[in-house]
């Protein structure tokens, strides 16, 4: 009844009600069926109490002939209690435990994950990766629990309470009035406590996510922690985050204790008052023994139900607090969105033009690029050179539209990149970075990431051309998978730097995009490995428009053109020989590196 992997329509809303509906859209028919079954179960519970009262009164009225005169009615009641009622209760349980529970969590998480993947890079720059993952799972779990628990209790409670008022009123109107007053007090207490519980639950969820983010950040960078011997520092940071979580949990717990104590006291008063009043009416002849039994069963059942409702409502509002916390983190609109009718250009040897670009990552008074203009011809190989902070990586990030241009425009061929669908743009560009991203998946899957639909034969051919096929055949993992099936470990930790770069090059070869970006692709490798990689790089660059960033100037000396950047501007450009003859900034960089004296400021 629920398509567990259906994507939602439109962006995630920023308000709680619309956000929950967005997460649950498509599941409402199943939810309404579960609510209807809950109402039926509640009415059946009341019917059972009414049957007891009827049986006692009938037995008193007819005496020893009761069984013989009421045999048909008793058989019907027996069938109802022994077969029909359990069957409906089982169907209700199946709806919540099989149709809703197992499907809602993947449905919600699929939508949150899809929305998160579509966020711009700034969204991920400003938060812990572990915290984002924690919020997604927390929100999906909390909303699933809210729906399942609401379906379990909401219809049941309304049907039981309404039916109880009718049955009590049939005995004496004053009993119905007492029940209404009790219910009003119950609702008032819930309305006072639960919003406060929701606020404290939100604070607790935020503190828990910070703990997860801190621990994941430490584990992700465990090599750095060990190299600097800062295990104690990370332990103190985790304890600090855990201390805040403990404080938030204590504040939440104190409110919960007060809530449950108050409602349990109120629940204990209900059977005392209702049974006492019914006994009084029986003593004056206005109620029967069956009425006493029915009132006792109903009041005890309502008292039990009130505890169940309060406990469940506590969980529901605590979960709503967690949903609100997750919504605030996960639902911001996408900072970069495709225009309506955005184009998907066919792969082509297109030139690239940067025109009047000003960009500062949204920071006032800061310019990563200032009045930046650059034109790259189709098939031209251009290198970007400059100090750290000169703006080289920013140029690449804007070309890939990882950040939105603040002023100016970038053209790929004749198309402004803002008029191209983001996925369509990035299909045109292959990227090989210094820190090559590897998934903890097989070598085959990591290479195939360049083109998901590629065949196994094409994957192997790409690896061969990238000089990766030999070492891949020697791979083994802990689960005894070998070769292309062996998993590479998180971020490819089981591979050397040169091996990771060869996998990255194989991806780029497999993708076969017309534009190739090399972002410090060999700067972290030693000279011998770099020389081996250069051969594979020439294979990848063949017939492509290339934008290369490199600190080692020897790796880009053969480029068609070298562009020298400083403080977000182009200060020189030309061939390697031209720039050396001018004796400018590039020539100073070259002398420092080729002379063997590495000036850190220049080399960075």
Automatic annotation (TrEMBL):
Residues 32-310 form the ABC transmembrane type-1 domain. It is a multi-pass membrane protein. InterPro entries: AAA+_ATPase, ABC1_TM_dom, ABC1_TM_sf, ABC_transporter-like_ATP-bd, ABC_transporter-like_CS, P-loop_NTPase, Type_1_exporter. Pfam families: ABC_membrane, ABC_tran. GO terms for cellular component: plasma membrane. It is found in: Cell membrane. Residues 352-592 form the ABC transporter domain. Its main location: membrane. Keywords: ATP-binding, Membrane, Nucleotide-binding, Transmembrane, Transmembrane helix. One of its GO terms (molecular function) is ATP hydrolysis activity. Part of an ABC transporter complex. Transmembrane domains (TMD) form a pore in the inner membrane and the ATP-binding domain (NBD) is responsible for energy generation. This is ATP-binding cassette domain-containing protein.
